[in-house]
Protein: Histidinol-phosphatase
Amino acid sequence: MTAARLALFDLDHTLLPLDSDYQWADFLARTGRAGDPDEARARNEDLMARYNRGELTAEQSAEFMLGLLAAHTPFELALWHEEYMAQVIRPAIEASAVQLVRQHLEAGDLCAVVTATNHFVTAPISRAFGIPHLIATDAEYIAGRYTGRIAGTPSFKEGKVVRVKEWLAGMGLALADFSETFFYSDSINDVPLLEAVTRPVATNPSPALRELARANGWQVLNLFAHMEDAKS
Structure:
């Protein structure tokens, strides 16, 4: 039976009060697993600043972020990711975000995380929220190693719309088949997908997205009081 509604969730600064990609790179740097720690932190900061300004491309991000995956074996990466989840992610998951997701799941809505961050980093996080589907940027994987390159269309900006439509089409569905379609996001980079759904929700929005949401009459949702203070 087709779900009556579709609920899509951005991840970083939306369901999480942090950026999982940035924090993963920082975790590797401070634990001595990212080459020169100072250089890694500097590149990480630069990428985050460009992302927040809406100036970052998926390819620019992948050069550094996916390069971190390519430098190590999958066995090492999986082991380290367990540490990362325990030390960084799980302590940051807040009840307000869990409750939002739970409301949609218990209503029988079809739910998915739609994130620009790569699938390796975000798959365990999506599972931690109980969200059954994940649309993320795919890291190319050949002969048992990550290559440092993107596979297919990155789940970023307009690419999120492309990937969501492809995912739905694989189930014989389209956005128009749902009575309501929700997308929760904090970022101005996600405007293409926010404009594609019937219920865009600016969630913990950046100043630019908050202004656009008010101009368009979109719902504004603040899940994290401390983030609202930081962005006001």
